[in-house]
């Protein structure tokens, strides 16, 4: 696998714009909250299969998402690598994925993470420690992102996707620091950071639902 590039992520963003706006009706709120430069982590809830591509197509900067290795098969795998996406083995502590993700942040790029680890209710109820580790280790701010699509089953062509041409709201929240300012990277510090992150992400999701009526 070649190293992820900013150019690849920007190509992915442009493709995402065409696909997401062509197939659905995104309404984007608060994109200006994403820092215009420097490292940043987008923490995205995950309830639909299009959450990653939707954020790629609506974020103001090209984003490198950590994506399960099972998606990197055949032509799709080569395509994902070409647009700067990162392969991760969720069953182990994937050192290559960790190194690649930290490299994105070290180079001032945008890292996209589904902190719940897998697609579920999308309510940030169960966070893995990976997000806290990347945030504390890199010092990059976290921007919470809520993707809220229709839960209506009618009109769906594929399970796990919102109905085509339905409205999907993408709400970006205020950037925040996960660490406590001490620079500590101990297990206790990461556990405390995870609690802080969960509070902020859950609060953002509640605000996004009130704002959008979802």
Automatic annotation (TrEMBL):
Annotated Phospholipid/glycerol acyltransferase domain residues: 40-150
InterPro entries xref list: Plipid/glycerol_acylTrfase
Keyword annotations from UniProtKB, A to Z: Acyltransferase, Transferase
Name the record gives this protein: 1-acyl-sn-glycerol-3-phosphate acyltransferase
Pfam family, one: Acyltransferase
CDD domains: LPLAT_AGPAT-like
Keyword Acyltransferase included in the entry's annotation: yes
Organism whose genome encodes this protein: Streptomyces violascens
Superkingdom of this protein's organism: Bacteria
GO terms of molecular function: acyltransferase activity
